[in-house]
Design brief:
This protein is mainly α. It has two helices and no strands. The radius of gyration is 13 Å and the shape is elongated.
């Protein structure tokens, strides 16, 4: 893992966490939408990591 990959991953995870916090603050009763957003973010993180670290 290179230093640049480490920074990029940290930034990406930070953005994902920030988005989760923002959506969580919007409406606590909207659990289904939150779960959908979380699932999409999870898939995006997995795809991102797979592209960054092939193999």
């Amino acid at each position: 893992m290179t230093f640049v990959q480490l920074i990029m991953t940290g930034i990406f995870l930070g953005m994902a966490y920030f988005l989760l916090r923002v959506f969580a603050d919007f409406g606590s009763q909207d659990t289904a939408a939150q779960f959908g957003i979380f699932a999409i973010l999870l898939v995006a993180i997995v795809v991102f990591v797979r592209k960054m670290f092939p193999g």
